Amino acid sequence: MASEHTNNQTVPMTETESIAYDVVVLGAGPVGENVADRARAAGLSTAVVESELVGGECSYWACMPSKALLRPVIARADARHVPGLSQAVQGPLDVPAVLAHRDYYTSQWKDDGQVGWLDGIGAVLYRGHGRLAGPRKVTVDGPDGERQVLTARHAVAVCTGTRALLPDLPGLDQVRPWTSREATSAHEVPGRLIVVGGGVVAVEMATAWQAFGSQVTVLVRGKGLLPRMEPFAGELVAESLKEAGADVRTGTSVTAVTREGSTVVALTDTGDRIEADEILFATGRVPRTGDLGLDTIGLEPGSWLDVDDSLRVTGSDWLYAVGDVNHRALLTHQGKYQARIAGAAIAARAAGVPLLETDPWGAHSATADHGAVPQVVFTDPEAAAVGLSLAEAERAGLRVRAVDVDMSSVAGAGLYADGYRGKARMVVDTNREILVGLTLVGPGVGELIHSATIAIAGEVPISRLWHAVPSYPTVSEVWLRLLEMYRDA
């Protein structure tokens, strides 16, 4: 039966109930949880609606399980380049132990802890599928077909995220393809795995399953991997995948798939026939807004939702779209950042307090979405970027200069890993003399990117960065090399 959770009690819902809250949140992933947390902290009564597991995609099928799978892979790769340690880590990974650790971090796909957290902040959880039913109204259809009607006094926040996009290919329905969900939750290692796509999910899952013993074939329609980063990022990751035994084919599209017994067969536009045990399509994401009742308020079902910098949907004074559904940055950390902004904006408007709209870096403006978005790709080597690539900066009409550094020239890099391979690119707006982009590729660079995020978000002048002295001998000394090259050129 559909139910309301409050103080760990389950209260049956009836069809005739209609309950008003200050804020109704659709989706209980990290984004929805943070909107609810900020709203409750401001004293607003808050309901959260979730049709799957509280904690969302990130907790059970994306960030947490994928990083749990990848951590031993990357740690072993790093250790193999440390003299005195390399011989101790030449054997295969203990895959059952890795999968068990992954299961621990997903709480065995149970959400009791997350439900308890929602209870702890005072939010009320409704299990079921939530849909808009006109302005400020939400219906919740529970698992037993019962319906609950909720009314929002101030705001409804759509935090329903995205789902995997599968291409329209002949034979796909019969193949039972993997998406990111199956790739992060599988309990058996396929002998052969085809990965279709060249983005983050594709390269991370290719890295993991190749290390677990699969023979991985990566099929990329474009020219290379990680197309949204600087070109050298994808080049270095592809080189490493090939060295690990993966077959990486660019300029290749899948035209049809079929399953012959237990074997998947993919046909390509290059005339190849590729056989595997499983096939993963990592070819993009679409918003979970198709069955959300958007048509009841004049919006297109299945569409991305356009928002202003307070995350309020364009043309509305009560509807907010936070996280992936607004298509600003499909990243958990950025969605949680937006949630904090949205929560503050909802609370301010509910209290009649003017928003700080004249301050682009104020509490009510998601300014970082426009130029200070960081991302880490957990491959071997890691790739990390924040801000604009050189091409993006040039398309934006900025007068920029790029500085490249071979990270093997950094003393700390050689100590981190024997034969360290990596590259860094700094993109500087020469009119303002500030950093607008940084890309790093190499072992351990994921832990370096936040310093660049601070520099970009803070618009720190290059002249001031010169006085931020990196510790010796650490990989962060790459900052000194970049600034020296910029100064001396």
UniProtKB/TrEMBL annotation:
Protein name (record): Oxidoreductase
Tagged with keyword NAD: yes
InterPro entries for the chain: Class-I_Pyr_Nuc-Dis_Oxidored (IPR050151), FAD/NAD-bd_sf (IPR036188), FAD/NAD-binding_dom (IPR023753), FAD/NAD-linked_Rdtase_dimer_sf (IPR016156), Pyr_nuc-diS_OxRdtase (IPR001100), Pyr_nucl-diS_OxRdtase_dimer (IPR004099)
Cysteines engaged in disulfide bonds, as pairs: C58-C63
One Pfam family this sequence matches: Pyr_redox_2
Keyword Flavoprotein: yes
Coiled coil residues, start to end: none
UniProt keyword list: FAD, Flavoprotein, NAD, Nucleotide-binding
Family (UniProt): Belongs to the class-I pyridine nucleotide-disulfide oxidoreductase family.
Domain Pyridine nucleotide-disulphide oxidoreductase dimerisation: 373-479
Superkingdom of this protein's organism: Bacteria
Domain FAD/NAD(P)-binding, first and last residues per copy: 21-333
